[in-house]
Structure formats: C-alpha cells, structure tokens
Amino acid sequence: MKNKKPHLFSPGALICAVFDHRFEVSQNITDHIKEYRCTRCGQEMTDTAQGFMAKLTPKFRETNAFLAKFHQRRCSRKMFQQKVFSEAS
Ligand SMILES: [Zn+2]
Asked: Ligand 1: distance of its center to the CA of 62 in Å?
C-alpha cells in the first residue's frame, strides 16, 4: 500500500500564492478587531491590538473570544443604560 502524501497546495492555495489572498470578514470581534477568512484557501487572519494583521493562531482565537465576550457585555450594558436613560427622561 502506498503512503499518500498530504496535499500541501490546494488549487485555492496555489492561486493565493500567485495572486494573494481574498479575505472576507468572518467575525467582528470589536469595532476595531475582526477575523478574516480567505474565500479561496480558507486561511484565517485577525487584526491585532497593534493594528497589524496576523495569522489566526489558537492563541489569537482564544484572545479574540475573550475580547468578543467582553465587548458584547460592554455593548449590552451601554444599551441598557441608554434605554433606562431614555425611559427616565
Ligand atoms: Zn487564500
């Protein structure tokens, strides 16, 4: 039985290697940090706190999940305060 080597390059990855990736926002983490996924090869990237784009590693994924939870809580609290304020006035 032959050992099949895993494909290092999918057709999408080969196109990306030549023409660069085509990223789309896959998730909004906060107003300034987003996750992106390449529509051709599936590579995932993220914005970093320093304003750069980096490959979405498990560590970044974990950090983003925490940031998203924190951001959602802050947004819902802000919306609650606005609602209370508008009902009070
Ligand atoms: Zn790609």
From this structure: 22
15 Cα to the center of ligand 1, angstroms: 7
**pTM for the full model?**
0.74
- Nearest CA to 53 among 72, 25, 19, 14? 25
As a three-state string, the secondary structure of 13-32 is HHHHHHHCCCEEEEEECCCC
What is the b/e burial string over 51-62, where b = at least 16 CB atoms within 10 angstroms of the residue's CB? eeeeebeeebee
| Amino acid symbol at 7 | H
Expressed in angstroms and rounded, the spacing between residue 21 Cα and the centre of ligand 1 is: 4
Taking the C-alpha atoms of residue 10 and residue 52, their distance in angstroms, rounded to an integer, is: 26
In terms of Cα–Cα distance, which of 33, 29, 12 is closest to 21?
12
Q: Over the stretch 2-57, which tens digit does the pLDDT of each residue have?
A: 555 555 667 888 899 999 999 999 999 999 999 999 999 999 999 998 889 999 99
